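Late entry, written up from scratch paper. The run itself happened at the end of the previous shift, but nothing got recorded in the book at the time, so transcribing now.
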Amino acid sequence: MAKLAERITVDPEQCGGRPCIRGMRIRVTDVLDLLANGLTPEQVLEELPDLEPEDIAACLRFASRRLDHPVVAAELQAFGVAEAIFGVIHGKSEA
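Output as recorded:
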């Protein structure tokens, strides 16, 4: 498994410094938005053919680590959404 830093890159001169995938102009949030809108990982790969399956996994790990930060987790808890987000990321559904 590739290290997260090999898959997720941040360049202040690219995409406004937002995290991207392997130096491409595909932002982590682009991938997460597609997944959040119901696309399967296979469909994301069809939509963004420059991606590899490991890139999608890296996006999910990146988001999980960001959300697990104590300050972010406390803010999400205050809004009552932390459990729902962590459930989606870790494959647990309320349905």
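The chain is about 55% helix and 5% strand.
(Scratch paper discarded after transcription.)
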